[in-house]
Amino acid sequence: MSQRTLVLVKPDGVQRGLTGQILARIEAKGYTLSQLKLVNASREVLEQHYAEHQGKPFFEPLVQFMLSGPVVAAVVEGDRVIEGFRILAGATEPTTAAPGTIRGDLGRDWGEKVQKNLVHGSDSPESAEREIGIWFG
Ligand code: RTP
Ligand code: MG
Question: Homologous superfamily of 2-136 in CATH?
């Protein structure tokens, strides 16, 4: 059944000039980009997006990281795309993410308080609809 997911190219991906490669991997896999924009996220949007992480030690570093430059937000569609994109993205920690994944091939540890791991993908249909509402209204 066709699904949609929210994908973000985080500020590290945009700053490093990896947006095109990341979007190309999504398209090469066969998924469809149905909405796409470059945005400077507000603190308000980020606090909503990362509401589940409020109070955790990495929350404030995470918000500061996500405010550090523009983000590319996309709605991506396809059958089982939520699971499929998270597999394309790889594990949260880029140092240990498998080769062949976005994080494994393009990311590494930079010795910072938060993992700069290039991309975000929604983790469930409920999260996807909630996050698409936050980023695209
Ligand atoms: P995402 O939501 O970005 O796809 O990543 P995820 O599910 O793999 O990771 P999650 O646990 O939801 O955490 C959200 C983001 O917070 C940063 N983080 N840093 N200890 C750390 O350094 C740490 N833990 C989490 C990452 O940017 C992660 O993607
Ligand atoms: Mg997550």
Answer: Nucleoside diphosphate kinase-like domain (3.30.70.141)
